[in-house]
From TrEMBL:
Purpose: Catalyzes the GTP-dependent ribosomal translocation step during translation elongation. During this step, the ribosome changes from the pre-translocational (PRE) to the post-translocational (POST) state as the newly formed A-site-bound peptidyl-tRNA and P-site-bound deacylated tRNA move to the P and E sites, respectively. Catalyzes the coordinated movement of the two tRNA molecules, the mRNA and conformational changes in the ribosome.
Similarity remark: Belongs to the TRAFAC class translation factor GTPase superfamily. Classic translation factor GTPase family. EF-G/EF-2 subfamily.
PROSITE patterns linked to this entry: G_TR_1 (PS00301), G_TR_2 (PS51722)
Protein name: Elongation factor G
Keyword Transit peptide carried by entry: no
All copies of domain Tr-type G, residue ranges: 14-287
UniProt keyword terms in alphabetical order: Cytoplasm, Elongation factor, GTP-binding, Nucleotide-binding, Protein biosynthesis
GO molecular function annotations of the record: translation elongation factor activity
Binding-site residues, GTP: 23-30, 87-91, 141-144
Major localization listed first in the record, in broad terms: cytoplasm
Taxonomic placement: Bacteria, Bacillati, Actinomycetota, Actinomycetes, Kitasatosporales
Length: 696
């Protein structure tokens, strides 16, 4: 493996760009990334998604499915600048991968389909970037497709994303005849020959000069409205110089007040060089972003992006590979060399950095050190998890970790061979360690091992990874819900005598009990309900106190299995009203046994009902999808408790049986074209309708 020495340009912060590629599925993110690598000379052959030859989609599942699943980091050089690039997933199930990437990036390229414009997941990742205040430029891709239209795509950016698009290019040719662009800043035409890898710069075609002039004027007016210095020059001279316009575009991009829009066809390798030039010109370097903030000892600290500062880095991704456990770091300050020991600030554990790698997806180049502004992978740390801060032991600091969304879908996972059970659990724990949006737990009531994630595709990919990477034959099924049984109407004065004589000391216990429903202590949907209450009203010492406690223990034993289906019983009040003892044969064991069988008999004589777990579901959907979502909730036996309007969306609150929520994430995304989201909160239990309880 090659070893790369740091060159001076890699230490100069203003020559580094850390950016991500964001988009909806099939907008062309991975193809854009591949063409960037090809154009910069990092690769010598164009990788194609449909051929499974891409650098960033290197995982076997990504190539089989033709989509990006895992955020992949690559590095390349362009015009004396190092570009660290992360190709992020576009499917909603892997939004957490995007979240972790955005946490460590300084800028992004948002890719849009020239036919579809802003698609649902484009909107979602744009909002994620807004939350992290990540500057963006836009690339309208696939202009060679039938129906492609730059103006329509730009209009959707303006209307759906509520930003000001600043279009700096005019396409030359339409659809299959697309062959180049007019650079509106320099008023020059960039034309690519069929099959050519570079463009030829020429004068603007005669037939486009008037339109190019009109669009340049619109660009100047839009910039002047947002940028005070540009406005001053515009008013003084009725136009903007190229240098002024470029500087204003850079300022507006970095403040987020506007977004520069370029266009092209990544598949045909048209528009990639101008895109790279825009990355260098408009997106910030690590030196342009504010110092990172962290805490230690209850006080807030800042670390500037300076190699001379104490070392501080954020681990944003962990991946187990054949070469070792890779921990991906964004270095915010200081310098770290291979062989050094750093501190995991969250755990207080020292971790040795054995190797430092410049990452090219699944290929790596060894480097001697990493400095502020770098995105690298390290081998050596054994217990570092995504979101951990690694820092200099003498200058500890905790950086804010990426937020982790709560899992919304669960499946039951079990090994087909009982001998593989422990291996399966170890594999699942390892998965959850690498991907914080996965959760593994064992249901204490059903005994099932549950794997929870962000969607059905997310879980399908995770379980397939267990099969392929660990060679385990696993069975995936629908989780069972934990039912309960409760009283509707009890019995009074039930007499039970426990007499046993089989040689030696006998057993004798005589009790009389009343059994009645125990009302919940408060809360909606069973929240706050009491499971069991016991009291004794026996007078005259007919049942000694130690035997009363034994009766209560016996009753609790009986609550483990109810008469309807062997489910735990809840919501029961038992009153011991009378009893009798024997001077020799009575004992705590005898009264415990009597309590257990007495309550079982009482429950069989009572009117019982089956309960199912329910959850409060909060659904956020676009206004145009409210009707379909309400109908779907009703079909799932949901009870809507409220609805509020919020900026073009509706927030619906409903109580829904947990059993009806399996598969809901996929259904909701289908009904809302991926724009609907929901959260759940367990609220207790509710009676199962008679039509349903027969099949429970």
């Amino acid at each position: 493996m090659r070893t790369e020495q740091h060159r001076p340009l890699e230490s100069a912060l203003d020559t580094v760009r850390n950016l991500g590629i964001l988009a909806h599925v099939d907008a062309g993110k991975t193809t854009v990334t591949e063409r960037i690598l090809y154009t910069t000379g990092t690769t010598h052959k164009r990788g194609e998604v449909h051929d499974g030859t891409t650098i960033t989609d290197f995982d076997s599942q990504e190539r089989d499915r033709g989509i990006t699943i895992f955020a992949a980091a690559v590095s390349c050089s362009w015009a004396g600048h190092r570009v660290n690039l992360i190709d992020t997933p576009g499917h909603v199930d892997f939004a957490d991968e995007v979240e972790r990437a955005l946490r460590v990036l300084d800028g992004a390229i948002a890719v849009f389909d020239a036919v579809a414009g802003v698609e649902p997941q484009s909107e979602s990742v744009w909002r994620q970037a807004d939350r992290h205040a990540v500057p963006r430029i836009a690339f309208v891709n696939k202009l060679d497709r039938a129906g492609a239209d730059l103006d329509t795509a730009v209009a959707s950016i303006r209307e759906r994303l509520h930003t000001v698009p600043l279009v700096v290019q005019l396409p030359i040719g339409r659809e299959d005849g697309f062959r180049g662009v007019v650079d509106l800043l320099r008023m020059r035409a960039l034309v690519w020959a069929d099959g050519g890898d570079t463009y030829e710069e020429t004068d603007v075609p005669v037939e486009l000069r008037e339109e190019a002039g009109r669009r340049r004027r619109l660009l100047e007016e839009a910039v002047a409205e947002l940028h005070p210095a540009a406005l001053e020059e515009f008013c003084a001279g009725s136009g903007l110089a190229e240098r002024t316009l470029a500087g204003a575009l850079r300022d507006l991009t970095r403040t987020g007040e506007g977004v520069v829009v370029l266009c092209g066809s990544a598949y045909r390798n048209r528009g990639v060089e101008p895109l790279l030039e825009a990355v260098v010109a408009y997106l910030p370097s690590p030196a342009d972003v504010p110092p990172v903030r962290g805490t230690w000892g209850g006080t807030e600290q800042e670390r500037a992006a300076d190699p001379a500062e104490p070392f501080a880095a954020l681990a944003f991704k962990v991946n187990a590979t054949a070469t070792g456990r890779l921990t991906y770091l964004r270095v915010y300050s200081g310098t770290v060399g291979k062989g050094e020991t750093v501190l995991d600030a969250g755990t207080g554990r020292g971790e040795r950095v054995g190797r430092i790698l410049r990452v090219q997806a699944d290929r790596h180049v060894d480097v001697d050190s990493a400095v502020a502004g770098d995105i690298v992978a390290v081998i050596g740390p054994r217990t570092v998890r995504p979101g951990a801060t690694l820092c200099a032991p003498g200058a500890p600091l905790v950086l804010e970790p990426p937020t982790v969304a709560d899992p919304v879908v669960s499946v039951a996972v079990e090994a087909r061979r009982s001998t593989d059970t422990q291996r399966l659990m170890a594999a699942l724990v390892r998965l959850a360690d690498e991907d914080p949006s996965l959760a593994v737990r064992t249901d204490p009531e059903t005994g099932q091992t549950l794997l929870s994630g962000m969607g059905e595709l997310h879980l399908e990919v995770a379980t397939e990874k267990v099969r392929r990477d660990h060679g385990l034959d696993v069975r995936v099924g629908r989780p069972r819900v934990a039912h309960r049984e409760t009283l509707v109407r009890g019995v009074t004065g039930l007499v039970y005598r426990h007499v046993k004589q089989d040689g030696g000391a006998g057993q004798f216990a005589h009790i009389v009990i009343d059994v009645e429903p125990l009302e919940p202590t408060g809360g909606e949907g069973g929240e706050g309900e009491a499971e069991f209450a016991f009291r004794s009203v026996v007078v005259g010492g007919r049942v000694p106190q130690e035997y009363v406690r034994a009766v209560e223990a016996g009753c609790r034993d009986a609550l483990v299995e109810g008469p309807l289906g062997g489910h735990p019983v809840t919501g029961v009040r038992v009153t011991l009203t009378d009893g009798a003892t024997h001077s020799k044969d009575s004992s705590e064991m005898a009264f415990r046994t009597a309590g257990r069988f007495a309550l079982r008999e009482a429950l069989r004589a009572s009117a019982m009902v089956l309960l199912e777990p329910v959850a409060e579901v909060t659904v956020t959907v676009p206004d145009d999808a409210v009707g379909g979502v309400l109908g779907d909730l009703a079909a799932r036996r949901g009870r809507v408790s409220g609805s509020t309007a919020r900026a073009g969306a509706a927030v619906i609150t409903a109580t829904v049986p947990l059993a009806e929520l399996f598969g809901y994430a996929t259904r909701l995304r289908g009904r809302t074209r991926g724009r609907g989201t929901f959260t759940t909160r367990a609220t207790g239990y509710a009676p199962v309708p008679a039509a349903v309880s027969g099949t429970a």
